């Protein structure tokens, strides 16, 4: 039986282990993907460090996967070996529970598969994915370019297009990391007056290079006061991992403005007064389904949105993960298998 490499975690807070496993056969309704590239998302801490109930170890993280359909399981139609596909956080759905029948496939009540969390993900040479979790990858994007669009790109694109902001509105992207640097580009290309907010001066030239109209250094400036001077934000897209940084922007929302929460800090404390007095709201957003991923990939090709990446081979997974966690990566770390 042919073997493959996977980078697995055997217990919460345990190290990455590169181990050999048999290349799995696709189950009914699933395909086997020959992985080319996989982004390293901050959400991979959930698998690496533990923090989400129900994760069974050993587990292979990775939910920004690009590869080729390698084999098709029984009952799968519409996908053929050799096609280039992407797999994101949404790892499939049943299609017949109440949420699926409402079209909210991400909230499927019966299929609880989350790529890299409850099923093995893309830190590997091969992975298995349900057919409904696959996105088609357009020409014009390499595997390394496309991988970060499967979560960092999808999440920011999908949140922005569902945020209620219209062309010309003031939209702030809070945090310029993996998600944020793509959020800035999408906001600019969607026609928003785009403000980037990050810690320190060093990210300002990069934020401006990505198209930001204005930059706020949250270490030396008060983001709420600065946004208010600019007229108040219609939307603040919060991609940071820190709750205080999020709540510090609420006073900078315009009347009726929305703080869209994408980042997952351990807690968030909010004063009700600015929400009540200005009819402001706080809303969360999850990434999206495979068709949202396809939309993200197509828009990125159309509008020239690209992730800035640091590339590591799969065997250097520990270094790649530490680089992501250090906050020094500019801006997405991507693993490659050499396939
Ligand atoms: N909602 C979803 O579906 C979804 C999808 C993917 C990821 N996420 C979550 O989104 C967050 C960002 O992910 P990522 O992959 O973009 O991470 P990342 O590349 O590591 O970036 C982390 C960001 O957090 C900010 N940050 C870190 N420590 C901070 C602190 N002490 N105070 C203020 N800001 C701080 C950094 O801000 P600076 O730019 O100022 O350095 C940076 O922009 C994570 O919590 C991740 O789990 C959610
Ligand atoms: Zn992610």
Biggest beta sheet summary: 7 strands, mixed
Average pLDDT taken over every residue: 96
Series of H and E elements? EEEHEEHEEHHEHEHEHEHEHEHEHE
Approximate shape: globular
Unreliable sequence segments: none
Cα end-to-end separation:
19 Å
The number of distinct structural domains comes to 2
Strand content: 25-35%
What is the number of helices? 11
What proportion of the residues is helical, as a percent range? 10-25%
- Say how many strands there are: 15
For the record, the CATH architecture of the largest domain stands as Alpha-Beta Complex
Helix/strand-derived category reads: alpha/beta
The kinds of small molecule bound in this structure are: NADP nicotinamide-adenine-dinucleotide phosphate, zinc ion
Model description:
It is globular and about 65 Å long. It has helices at residues 45-49, 98-101, 143-146, 152-161, 178-189, 204-209, 223-229, 243-247, 272-277, 290-303, 317-326, and strands at residues 3-9, 16-22, 30-40, 65-72, 84-87, 126-130, 134-136, 170-174, 193-198, 214-217, 233-238, 253-261, 281-284, 309-313, 332-336. The strands form three sheets. Strands 3, 4, 5, 6, 7, 14 and 15 form a seven-stranded mixed sheet that branches. Helix 4 packs across helix 5. It is built from eleven helices and 15 strands. The chain folds into two domains: 3-151 and 287-336, Medium-chain alcohol dehydrogenases, catalytic domain (Quinone Oxidoreductase, Chain A, domain 1, Alpha-Beta Complex); 154-284, NAD(P)-binding Rossmann-like Domain (Rossmann fold), CATH 3.40.50. Strand 9 (193-198), helix 6 and strand 10 form a beta-alpha-beta unit. The protein starts with a strand and ends with a strand. The chain is an alpha/beta fold. Bound molecules: NADP nicotinamide-adenine-dinucleotide phosphate and zinc ion. The site of zinc ion has 5 residues, from loops.
